UniProtKB/TrEMBL annotation:
InterPro entries for this protein: Ap4A_hydrolase, Calcineurin-like_PHP, Metallo-depent_PP-like
Residue span(s) of domain Calcineurin-like phosphoesterase: 14-101
Species assigned in the record: Neisseria arctica
Source organism, top-level taxon: Bacteria
GO MF annotations in UniProt: phosphatase activity
Annotated Gene Ontology cellular component terms: cytoplasm
Entry-linked Pfam families: Metallophos (PF00149)
Protein name per Swiss-Prot or TrEMBL: Serine/threonine protein phosphatase
């Protein structure tokens, strides 16, 4: 089957849901507030769109994915792939993926357990189905991508001519690795990884300077077109910071400040906050200070990820979901209003 990385949204009103990260209870509460039936249908003919990262970290990624698959196959729901789905597809164990990768389970259980683990026998079917999901959804009035709208990356995907997604991903990886292996700092990168890879996962202690690792991460974010769309491009960080299970030396950058097209873009990935939060001197702080604001040079990009993927912290400290500062949200389109998993609503601005 020819892979279509770019697919069309239906011409109906939409509810665009942010990164779910395995938080099944929050998802089903939100769907109820939005008026959806148990099968994902809506009495007014609305359709669901997910911006990716349905899985990892939360208590029941298998349930979230299974529900989405049946709703999608019935024509009620759509998704773009996020970086977390891609990690599963290409066999890349990352923080919070112990529900899928045995190699991550012991380490991830410390933070994220209890959670449901996907049976080994179900993995091939899930991976084959995910591999058919697009990276981009669009129609005349709207564009959906997980992290970054990057025409230069899409040009390379167009040139692939429908090549299988996993084959494409690994081909770009091979091409990228060949380029990186020729860099003058590559030997230093290998040495840094051999010495400090484990230390980079310790949040309590800053690892020593790793300039070659920083150079490697920077090039890796920019030269792989699938990774660029789903993780965003990066720039050198002002200082190392700890995020998603390891110390980082490059930081996400605000591509939307260079997006000059008229069509609005809705994304996830960037972990904005509904409640006021002081800027973190070690993080990118890319989101506008107004918690319901569109952003970008034309004010037509919206991040709908309100950090529900951090609710594992609530479970560790005994905070009830009703009292959580981390939310799951939907952006209603064309209304441009927000609905949250606790039933609250708000306009965007």
């Amino acid at each position: 089957m020819t892979y279509q990385y770019r697919q069309r949204l239906p011409d109906t009103p939409l509810d665009i849901i942010g990164d779910v990260h395995g938080e099944a209870d929050a998802l089903f509460a939100l769907l109820d507030h939005l008026g959806y039936r148990a099968d994902g249908s809506h009495p007014e003919g609305r359709r669901l769109v997910f911006v990716g990262d349905l899985c990892d970290r939360g208590p029941d990624s298998p349930r979230v994915l299974a529900w989405f698959k049946q709703a999608h196959d019935a024509g009620f729901a759509y998704m773009v792939l996020g970086n977390h789905e891609l990690n599963a597809l290409v066999g890349d164990p990352k923080d919070g993926s112990g529900w899928y990768f045995d190699a991550r389970r012991e380490k991830d259980d410390v933070l994220y357990a209890p959670w449901r683990v996907l049976p080994e026998a179900e993995k091939p079917e899930l991976a084959a189905w995910l591999a058919q999901q697009p990276l981009v959804l669009e129609r005349e009035d709207l564009r959906i991508v997980h992290a970054a709208w990057l025409p230069e990356s899409m040009e390379r995907l167009e040139a692939a001519g429908g090549e299988d997604l996993r084959t494409q991903y690994r081909r770009y990886d091979t091409e990228l690795n060949n380029i990186l292996a020729q860099a003058p700092w590559y030997g230093d990168y290998l040495a840094e990884q051999q010495c400090y890879a484990e230390a980079c996962e310790n949040p309590e202690k800053l690892p020593p300077p790793m300039p070659a690792t920083a150079a490697y991460e920077l090039q890796r974010s920019r030269l792989h077109p699938i990774r660029a769309l789903t993780s965003g491009v990066e720039e050198p960080a002002k200082a190392p910071f700890y995020a998603s299970g390891r110390w980082r030396f490059t930081a996400r950058c605000a591509w939307w400040q260079n997006y000059h097209e008229e069509t609005p873009v809705v994304i996830g990935h960037y972990w904005r906050h509904w409640y006021p939060k002081a800027p973190d001197p070690h993080r990118e702080n890319l989101m506008p200070s107004e918690n319901n604001a569109w952003h970008g040079v034309r004010g037509n990009v919206y991040c709908i990820d309100y950090s529900v993927g951090a609710r594992w912290r609530d479970r560790k400290n005994g905070t009830a979901a009703a009292d959580s500062v981390f939310r799951l949200a939907a952006l209603r389109w064309p209304e441009k209003t927000l609905v949250f998993d606790n039933g609250e609503t708000a306009p965007t601005r």
